[in-house]
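Worked example 2:
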Amino acid sequence: MLQVSSLGKRYGDTLVFEGVHFTLNAGDRAGLVGPNGSGKTTLLRILVGEERPDTGSVQRTAANVRIGYLPQALKYDDEATLRQVLAGSRLLDADQLAAQVEELAQALSTADESEREALEKSYAAAIERMQDASLYLTEYQVQAIMAGLGLADVDPSAPVRILSGGQKTRLGLARLLLSNPSLLLLDEPTNHLDITALEWLEEYLSQYAGGMLIVSHDRAFLDRTVNQIYELDPLTHSLRAYPGNYSEYAQTKAREREKHAQMYREQQERIA
């Protein structure tokens, strides 16, 4: 779904990373780790097109790949209601289709015979599209996902401005999950989640069929959600892949450090 080739990024004279390459396919579940400042958020922003790399490329392997991105900092229209935020582009699509159907109906009422056949086909296609359930959010969908993320007590018709910062993060996560993207990019999704909401999110992701790349400092969360780790190293400015969850990655890193330490000790003995 997403092919990353030789990505490099600098801010002035500061090199963030270079030579980054990996591929995310449907079903891949990767965690992106590294210390603060190693470029994790920058990499996600490049993947979704919010920043441009200095070198390399990001390609979607299919035209219909839909990327869902949860940034750390979320911005909303404060007067929009929770329901409007959750519906997102689907609400706009439904409104546009309704307007199109009305226009076609009016055109049909005054059309002559030469225009009628084409208008009738367009009208039938618009009606069929309006009946597509994916355009609409059912009340059950809204209530279920809000309850899972700890927003059950908030009125869906209330404006976003009444929410706390943590609730806004949860709302962004709910909107993202309801959009059902084929690839999830999540930047610290567990921030502001209590135990119940965290367990709900883990269960949701365990059943998610698309690809995902998750930035998180929550080791237990990564253990339960990913099966490979991408490490951004601020010393080498490179990315390296490790199979397994976070605990398996940590064990591999510990063995590597011990091996390097042993090689150093042997070198010092030879020098002495």
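The first helix runs from residue 40 to 47. The beta strands are 2-11, 14-24, 29-33, 55-60, 67-70, 183-187, 211-215, 228-233, 238-243.
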